[in-house]
Amino acid sequence: MKNGVGVAQNIVLFGGTSEIGQAIIHKLVKPGVSHVVLVSRDIDAAEVQVAEIAERYPDMEVHHVRFNADDSASMIHVVAEVAQQVGDIDVVVIAQGVLQEGVDYYKNPVALLPVADVNFTSTMVLMYALAAQMRSQGYGKMVLLSSVAGERVRKGNPVYGATKAGIDGFALALDHELIGSGVSVLVVRPGFVTTKMTKGMDKAPFSTDAETVATAVEKAVSSSRTVIWVPGLLQYMFLILKNLPTAVWRRLPL
Amino acid sequence: MAQSGSLSTGLRCTPRRGLRVDLCLLGAPSRIRTMVMQRLSGWGRTAWTVADLVHTTDVDVVRSTIGTAGERGIISRGLGRSYGAAAQNAGGIVLEMTSENDPMGIDADFDPLTGLLTVAASVSIDAILRMCVPQGWFIPVTPGTRFVTVGGAIASDIHGKNHHIDGSFGQHVRSLTLMLSSGEVIELSPEANAAWFWATIGGMGLTGVVLRATVAMLKIESSRVEVETVRLENFDAVCAAMSADGSDGDYRYSVCWVDLLATGASMGRGVLTRGDHAAASKVDKEDPLSYDPRLTVSAPGWVPNGLLNKWSIKAFNEAWYRKAPAKSHIALESIPAFFHPLDGVNRWNRLYGKQGFIQYQFIVPLDRTDVLRKVIEKFSAAGVASFLAVLKRMGPQNIAPMSFPTEGWTLTLDMAAGISGLAELLSEVDTLVLDAGGRHYLAKDSHVSASAVRRGYPRIDEWMSTQEEMDPIGLWRSDLSRRLGLVDHRRSL
Is A139 annotated in the active site? Predict the structure, then answer.
């Protein structure tokens, strides 16, 4: 669980190579953390990060667990493996995600499957598996990296937007189901974040960076908030955008 | 919601803002146990976790609860006055053993001739004082609140303003009855099975459930305390006045309030209060032993997070310092006013708002006043405002391996839990304390690491092996024991 000054003992990052995920981990790691687990597909990249974190915080144990984010059925075993390594899973950052750009889904509709699997199906399986583990612990916090892209899915990348819309809705409902169990979910809705995932893309208005997202998460993770927007102003912008008549929405130069 | 009241022999269920109420039949058909899933924290109102709460004072219910425990184990809880996670058990069972407002009265056997009190562990010091003070006896050790149970007092081996003379609570316990994880009930005393007795004193509830204890009470002539109040203009004056070569040893009770926000020449200024129970002849009253503690006001539930801040506390400190007479002065005070001033405000722990607060209490050897000064400077530089900072010189330590007090200075301060950068700041202070050969008080701890406890309590391995003898299956577990690795959590139930 977390201690009296809000520091969790065991922190796990799913999507261990995610830039935002790593930035969040760096913010959450403070004196009092005993284990950090990076869960990712890429072993080499993870080893570099493990070494880097271990060097910065010598009192802490850093582990790496390998997974295939699009293999939804394997999530149950991954959670069990993490629990075996560290005991209680106190705070989890779920940062696994795929953003496919420039794929012609009309020609190759099957290409959307990995996006749906990683962003949606696997993440749902993962969150249920984590919820079960955390409920038995009487404490736990899941931080889900959602996106404003799911707020009102639009043309351009409907697949990505739809998976984010789906997982965002799922996470909120799961949080509702978990009331009273000591387990809760924090849904993070960043705007356009400049990372390697969005490299080469045109910046959207109110874009932000991984560091800003991480700072907002650090603050919210020990509060009772369920949703945060980064930057915060997006919440009010989307309140308007979501409620625009379709005819107006479709004409917006977004 | 469950109805309050007695359902069958020895069983109580308390109405709670509960989430789920399970009534399960156990053993004899007439015995119903109530288990409520409940969010719990310590007195500091931080680090909430959920556990199955069983409220009982019945030995048979305790035993049947042991039988149903899962792998998250059980911890017992009294009035929840330990500040951190000592009496909570995320995902496991918490046995709440309190007998406040018990319609059957206090479960106690008191001999006013010898002053020996045999009492259920669920009884509070408050109840004991109400019973014993009018008969001319006082609890030998009381902390700053009278709302602690005897079980909690033993588990934390609590100390009070008289530690330099009388030692800690455990030294006044003549014997205790303990239920082991096997369900067996045993008697422990310093004579019979001393190792197990002393492992239970300060054992944070991890050796078993204390059911009863016999305590040697202290004879008093009146319910008043003769108190000398001395204003001390800086930290050097505070340390000098409380040193062993000063007059500290002439007073049974001695403690100093310290103003941590004062800077410059008056850094660490304080108000020293010391005294002893007044003789009957000094009390101008019909009944010198009359005792009537009252709760006057209650802190509301809606206090905002920032109410206690640097400025409000600074103003309070100034007023408190000025209130003390410039010249030393002697007066008679009541027991609640002298020993339990905070109990005047019911639920005062809400004053820090929703964020909660932590208490930081450590001890360093007598010759390390330099560390005290460094710690005060560090907190002061970081702008940490402490509403209550108290300094006390402690006497020699007892033989319990996990008992906190050792000969030295103990400084206690509280602070809002939401201060940014607090984890880093406390970690630096922890290092200062540990490097000086000091340690932290587990009943108040909210954040220290397993390695800090290993360094601070050099006899921890001895205690852990006794603990394992007493609880081979590893039944007793708490959030505190998990964080600090106090018991081997790989032992499976």
Answer: no
Residue A198, φ and ψ in degrees, nearest 5: -105, 15
Question: Which residue of A lies nearest to B427 if distances are taken between CA atoms?
Answer: A31
Please answer yes or no on whether B422 and A5 come within 8 Å at the CB atom.
Answer: yes
**Torsions phi, psi for B371 (to 5 deg):** -70, -40
Residue in A6, A32, A182 closest to B50 by CB: A182
- SS3 (DSSP) at B188: strand
Question: Residue B330 forms beta bridges with which residues?
Answer: B228
B291 φ, ψ to 5°?
-140, 120
Q: Are residues B262 and B214 part of one domain?
A: no
Within this chain, do residues B25 and B84 fall inside the same structural domain, yes or no? yes
Residues in chain B closer than 8 A to A137 (CB atoms) = 72, 90-91
Q: What is the ipTM of this complex?
A: 0.90
User: For residue range A71-109, what is the model confidence (pLDDT) as tens digits?
Assistant: 999 999 999 999 999 999 999 999 999 988 889 999 999
End-to-end CA distance of chain B: 32
Query: Which of A34, A136, A180 is opposite residue B19, by nearest beta carbon?
Result: A180
Give the 3-state secondary structure of residue B176. strand
**Pairing relation of β-strands A10-14 and A35-40?**
parallel
Strand, helix or coil at A37? strand
CATH of the domain at A20: 3.40.50.720
Q: Are β-strands B93-96 and B49-55 bridged in parallel, bridged antiparallel, or unpaired?
A: parallel
Q: Which residues contact A174 (CB under 8 A, 6 or more apart)?
A: A127, A128, A131, A185
Q: Which residue of B has its CA nearest to A180?
A: B19
Whether residue B319 is contained in a domain is answered as: yes
Residue B406 domain flag: yes
Give the model confidence (pLDDT) of B393-426 as tens digits: 999 999 999 999 999 999 999 999 988 899 999 9
In chain B, residues with a C-beta closer than 8 Å to the C-beta of A180 are 19-20, 37, 39, 50
Question: Does the pTM of the predicted model rise above 0.80?
Answer: yes
CATH number at residue B43: 3.30.43
For B81, the domain range is 11-96
Question: Reduced to 3 DSSP states, what percent helix, strand and coil does chain A have, rounded to the nearest 5?
Answer: 50, 15, 35
